[in-house]
Amino acid sequence: MRHGPVAAFIQKEYGDCTAAGGRKHVHIVIMGCGRVGSRLAHTLEDSDHSVAVIDQNPEAFRKLRSGFKGTKVTGVGFDRDVLIEAGIERADAFAAVSSGDNSNVIAARVARESFGVQRVVARIYDPRRASVYQRLGIPTVATVAWTADQMLRRLIPEGAESLWRDPTGAVVLAEVAYSDFWIGQKVCDLELAARARIAYISRLGDAIVPSPNLVVQEGDVLHVIAADSDIDGIASAFAGPEPGRGNH
Predict the structure, then answer these.
(1) According to DSSP H, which parts of the chain are helical?
(2) Which pLDDT belongs to residue 214?
(3) What's the pLDDT band for 179 if we cut at 50, 70, 90?
């Protein structure tokens, strides 16, 4: 799904159940059943993942299609009992997309700090707060037209997303998802395996031009500049371990 790429943060092992197309089946909890929340729920379900949606207003669930098979939970999204009912204890990712910035960040922190969910993302309406939340370890997405697509990239990573092209279309700046294998590895090792240059890394709200010995950390967003014809090969290299080396 190119315009809505199911792509950002799948860990190496997500259990035994495999979704269509060879992807791992995951459980994702969504707080907020507005336009973004319902779109996320439908897209994830269409990709054969299990989904639970939380909203304080039971009428909000009318935005879900009649055939939605996921769990619907009425309640406050940062309440522990509500989260447990939604399956947070087995969740691989959590998205907070309600209408309140503070509620979204509180819920995301509860999911991560109380239940150990590593892949969390919060929607925000005030972009001035983004850097503060990033420093708390909560990735955020601003309320713009492509919010749902960006949420998906941060929940389930896959492939490369083009961010800029030169006028000829030959050179691309792309955000490229990477395997957990590369966490703790040096940038130079990843660049050597992919035969590519990492232009910059987004880390906790800051942009970093990496030195060769910089180590990739969990939550880093890697941006590569390369020939358009090379992007698929680079994405494949980022998705697996360096050739000739086994998994951890």
Answers:
(1) 35-46, 80-85, 101-115, 130-135, 147-155, 187-194, 231-239
(2) 93
(3) confident
Q: Domain 20-155 carries which CATH code?
A: 3.40.50.720
> Which residue has 């809505």 as its token pair?
4
Span of 81-95, 167-181, 220-234 with lowest mean pLDDT: 167-181
Provide CB contacts within 8 A for 34, sequence distance 6+: 60, 63, 97, 98, 99
CA distances from 201 to 11, 208, 214, 231 (A): 19, 5, 10, 17
CA distance 171 to 177: 18
Q: Which of 163, 121, 117, 113 is nearest to 37 (CA)?
A: 121
Question: pLDDT per residue over 91-119, tens digit each?
Answer: 999 999 998 888 998 999 999 999 999 88
Query: At what angle are helices 187-194 and 231-239 packed, to 10 degrees?
Result: 130
Which CATH number applies to 160-239? Answer: 3.30.70.1450
